[in-house]
Amino acid sequence: MLSEHFVVSIAAPVKAPSTSAKDIGIFQYQWQPLVSQDCTFKKSLTPKNCLAVSETHIFAAQADKAVVHVYNREKNNQEAVVPFPERISSLTLAAKDSVLVLGTEEGRILLWEVSKLH
Hints:
By secondary structure, this protein is mainly beta. It has strands at 4-14, 24-32, 36-42, 51-53, 57-61, 67-72, 77-83, 88-94, 99-104, 109-113.
């Protein structure tokens, strides 16, 4: 059966409805066969153009900080907080999701090789 998912991030923390969880900034939804929320990822304030999603991971640059949070989609948890020398203004995955390309507020481009974890 076809299964489709999409990931959404917001730049302000919210409290999930009917739960005690707060500081949720990334939501993963299942689109097919039924629309439903799969999971959420906490402690992320992600501005636009600062979210990249692979089959196994989510990379989210943080608003007003020089760090990227790395979330494992299979385990539904945060795996790492990666510091960078400058604030990130955009990011994307390239080269078959093996390189994270980051643009900084100062205009630099950083390339970060992402290891494939299976």
